[in-house]
Amino acid sequence: MVYGMTLQYRSTRGNESNSLTASQAILQGLAPDGGLYVPVIFPKLTTPLKDLVGLSYQDLALQILKLFLDDYTEAELKACITAAYGDQFDTNLITPVHQAGNVNYLELYHGPTLAFKDIALQLLPHLMTTAMTKNNYDGQITILTATSGDTGKAAMAGFADVPNTRIIIFYPKDGVSAIQKQQMVTQTGDNVNVLGIDGNFDDAQRNVKAILNDSAIQAQLATQNIQFSSANSINIGRLIPQIVYYFAAYGQLVQNKTIALNDEVVFSVPTGNFGDILAGWYAKKLGLPIKRLLCASNENNILTDFFHTGQYNKKRAFHVTSSPSMDILVSSNLERLLFEVLDEDPTALSAFMQEFETAGSATLSTTAKTKLADFVAYDTDQAQTLAAIRQTQTQANYTIDPHTAVATHGAMAYLKDTKDTAPMVILSTANPYKFPETVLWALTAHKPLESGFEAIQAVSNVISLPVPKNISHLKRAKVRFDQTISVAQMAPTVLNILTH
Ligand SMILES: *Cc1c(COP(=O)(O)O)cnc(C)c1O
């Protein structure tokens, strides 16, 4: 890239003059002013769509990533992509589309930790270490991450024993499934730490953000040449790789003749932190023919209300549901969408977020709300989640996990309400064996006594899908991390880990 032509990333809350290159934004994670990095000028896809159909996942990834991460050389990106999307995935397609009844499932769970987070988190460590070299940074990067279950494991799997990095994970101790917990507490690697906290995901996420922005902690760590970054989807290095599978899905639908080139499709996305669906919106901005993005929520339905009314209101109860990776009140990535509907005005965005933080609620103007027309939103309760799993099994002989069930219920409700004939693609974000208690409940129609590995066994007795090795191996894996701390202990614990 010619100097001066490089794509710049700016903070949603700050001055454009503080913008960074892509590799610098990946190292930084969250902007120092608490905002999120977004491209100053949204890139243009110049390759015609038809030339993207039929590319391997890896070649497609290069085409998309080079638009956004343009201070990396093609050779650097290729090396990162090759390392990320190899035989740690159990299919060459990486993200295969499966047709079930009248809808299509984009399976994003074929990576090492069996949830969609792997797609970005197998790549991020390579992008980050390459960024360190490119920016002559010779210190250590510490990844601090709050997880509702899947990010933590996927981030550790990506970063374990990566030189010059350390990773510290916080999870809500009662807010993850038994299998998710077992996956995390057995993680190997000398540079990893996992801690349960007495609190929910929002407590974890809020405090991680506070630690990342604490200048006293940063100053202390700088003396040891340690810099913080994030593996949450606030990092553009998490977000951008997720654009790729929307194109991959579209290409497969063209190839298997479900659609003709340029036909519009609807994507239904089980949503938590709004990273996955935002990547879909970025795909649409690049020109992928997406008619609608369906934001599917569980009982934590702040986003459903937001898309229906324009009011973003967190004054409500927090629900622990059977889709824990979506048990989120405040979705970080919504800020990137808000920034755009507020005409990329950091002052307006900061005021909106400030009001939301202090009053607990903020409302878009009518004009701003009309800019959300690409989105529809549905919420799904526990009974509907179970029904969606059961119906998909009996009607299409296909097993889905509770997160995917939330998106399935939303998709069916949308199709019924709108009679839309555009093909529906439902993002399938986790292997059903990650949440065996709920799947068993749905399939047997009564709340099971079994949990964890017993529930897995029981599920495998009734469905034909084999139990993935990465789950069956967990049973004998050694527990390495059993510490639980209070929310107030998070910052001191981080300092303690890093200074010893
Ligand atoms: C993280 C996650 C989601 C939600 O994705 P966001 O990008 O946070 O909106 C949905 N399903 C599963 C299984 C997840 O792990």
Automatic annotation (TrEMBL):
GO annotation, cellular component aspect: cytoplasm
Enzyme Commission number(s): 4.2.3.1
Gene3D superfamilies: 3.40.50.1100, Threonine synthase, N-terminal domain
Regions that span the bilayer: none
Domain Threonine synthase N-terminal: 8-85
Residues recorded as bearing N6-(pyridoxal phosphate)lysine in the entry: 117
InterPro entries named among the record's database cross-references: Thr_synth_N (IPR029144), Thr_synth_N_sf (IPR037158), Thr_synthase-like (IPR004450), TrpB-like_PALP (IPR001926), TrpB-like_PALP_sf (IPR036052)
Organism domain of life: Bacteria
Domain Tryptophan synthase beta chain-like PALP: 109-429
Keywords assigned: Pyridoxal phosphate
GO-annotated biological processes: threonine biosynthetic process
PANTHER family: THREONINE SYNTHASE-LIKE 1
NCBIfam families cross-referenced by the UniProt entry: thrC (TIGR00260)
Protein family per UniProt: Belongs to the threonine synthase family.
Protein name: Threonine synthase
Source species of the chain: Agrilactobacillus composti DSM 18527 = JCM 14202
